[in-house]
Amino acid sequence: MKRIVVACQGGALHAAFTVGVLRRILQASEANPGYQLIGFSGTSAGALCAAACWYGLHQGGPAQAVDTLSRVWEDFAAQTPVEQIFNQWLVSSLRLQGKGVVPEVKFSPYAPFFPLVIEQMRYLGYRREFVDYTTLLEKHIDFVQARQFVAEPRLLVGAINVLSGDCKAFDSKKGEISAEAIRASGSIPGLGARAVEIEGNLYWDGLYSQNPPIRNFLTDPESAAEKPDEIWLIQLNPKSRPAEPKAVEDIQDRDNELAANLSLEQEKKFIEKVNEWVAAGYLPKNDYKTITVQTITLSPALSQELDFASKLDRSQAFINRLMADGQMQAQAFLDKWLVENSPHPQQRPVLP
Question: Which of 13, 65, 115, 200 has the fewest CB atoms within 10 Å, i.e. the most exposed one?
Fold first, then answer.
């Protein structure tokens, strides 16, 4: 059995693609196709996905993980008429700002009126799960119980210490997974989120640190046997683009993608370097081993259509489209993986 870690990159609502990928990986794992899910990591919305899967697996296995993940995203989407109208207005406004048609309005999440606006939204037909991230999390995850899940599978949630600039990976092995940790991982001040205080430290979105955390799975286990054989990376932000961005909105979109991929590329290069040292015999084989990184990305056609504004689109139709693409891309990945990893291809498991 290959020991597999699934790492989920942040990308706001584009993480609906991650939901589709995770569903397929979890469903296929029940057929015992030759891999064991030993860990998850995530940043921002990727942390939400990873946490839901991790919690569900500990609660009842792959089927429970799929159910938890699905219910979280059902509540995350715009449901009521007021939520749908707000969502459409927000996405349209961001696109008009990107084109320079309307001025960009910025404000501090610490402005005294901001919490009052959020509170008033509850009385206009917005569900608390829609406007309060903590409510959404605590509805589906019992964090008192979750702190007891210190065995495999393991969960890492990426964030950054605002004041010190140090990367932080909240670790289930240390009992650090909480609603605050996941909220911190998605706390983007430019989108109206305040820093999250945890044990006297202030944290922002993991986009600025590890997106998502990976290297901890190599450095923390004491023996090679405890480390993963492969890391399956769900990457939402494309590494390359076919043409130079010239329009304001295209420049903004590419700037966001490059920032999101910066830490990820550093994590991958770290693994490549460790693999080189293992192959050269510089590291003891009892403590280290070669780890393969596989990447699952959006289909090129869909990726080209997405923009910065779509990262905040919580419409059910948009979410469903991304989920369907995730299912399709995961299926293609698993079909290829089974062929490459089965000693007897004619006898490889047939995925349900």
Answer: 200
